[in-house]
Amino acid sequence: MKFLLVGVSGLALFMAGCSKKAPVASTPKAPDTTPVAAAPAPTRAPARANNTPAQNRAPQQVAARPQNRTTPPEVIATLNSRLAKLEDALFDFDKSTIRPDAGTALKDDVGVIRDILAAYPSQKLLIEGHADERGSEEYNLALGDRRAQSVKDFLTSQGIPANQLTLISYGKERPVCTDETEACWQRNRRAHVTAAQ
Fold first, then answer.
1. CATH topology for 73-195?
2. pTM
3. With 50 as the cut, is the pLDDT of residue 57 above it?
């Protein structure tokens, strides 16, 4: 009986000891959960994400403003009406060399071009190279480019600033006439000067 009493009292003490340990075990958990719950890490991350795009957008908008300088449309229209009176440089079939009549036409054009560029020093002129309908699209684009380059070289040799001249080739895409005659093809083999926009 004594053993039974000692066993029961030992078990009671053991259980009492275990019940005391339960609050002790939960006490360390409370401090562990409190810092985690109080940590504002998820709140900080979105704040940084929202600030970053705003910081990136502002410099892009500021940088884009100076690049949007363009000549007003009414000035371009005035320049193009003056340039439309100039004579186009015409070329022989499959050639990009300046022939004598084209050289004469370009020399007559130099005065008008010089006056325009002096009045509008930031304006560029566009030299368009064209071809007739014969030949492939790729070939005519390359031919139109060579024709535009020949006119640019000629104009710069006459004192026109090269940095105010730009080139484009339309190949056979923009004909002035569509008849299948030599006279029409001759009109389409040309270089034309216009105001760059």
1. 60s Ribosomal Protein L30; Chain: A; (3.30.1330)
2. 0.64
3. no
